[in-house]
Amino acid sequence: MEIDYYKKVEAFERRVISEALQEARGNQAQAARLLGLAPTTLSSQLRRLGIQVRDFKRSSPSESFETFQRFLLWKSAYLTATPGDVNRGRVEKARGAGSPLAPCLPD
After folding, report:
1. Sign (positive/negative) of CA torsion 94, 95, 100, 104?
2. Angle at CA 17, nearest 5°, toward 8 and 21?
3. Where are the domains of the chain?
4. What spatial distance separates the first Cα and last Cα of the chain, rounded to whole Å?
5. What is the CB neighbour count within 10 angstroms for residue 80?
6. pLDDT grade, residue 107 (50/70/90)?
């Protein structure tokens, strides 16, 4: 069995840099600080490894999933509500300040 040292090192670099970029949400300067690198060094490593920073600028997966869950709850409340529920304010309670649905409900 043959082990390619350079491929192993490159895979390790790619993983560590990707983790730092994910933690920094795509902010290269912050990722460089996390790694203890100069921003220019990180930039050259990104080019060499072909890592696209834009892939890390999105919100974190857990936040996206939580937002999606809130949307599904909101949608199910509106789909299952009868006109009487809406008129009596039952659906409107979901818009309250303490509601987990409040951030994603339309006004």
Report:
1. positive
2. 155
3. 5-56, 61-104
4. 63
5. 9
6. very low
Question: Please, how many CA atoms are within 13 Å of residue 100, restricted to the half-sphere of its CB?
Answer: 9
**Alpha-carbon torsion, ordered 42, 48, 51, 53, to 10 deg:** 40
Residue 27 corresponds to which amino acid?
A: N
* Distance from the Cα of residue 40 to its chain's centroid: 25
Work out the mean pLDDT of the chain and round it to a whole number. Answer: 75
Query: Coil, strand or helix: which one is 24?
Result: coil
CB distance 28 to 56 below 8 Å = no
Q: Per residue in 63-72, pLDDT tens?
A: 656 666 676 7
* Angle of CA points 6, 45, 2, to nearest 5°: 10
Are the CB atoms for 10 and 28 separated by under 8 Å?
A: no
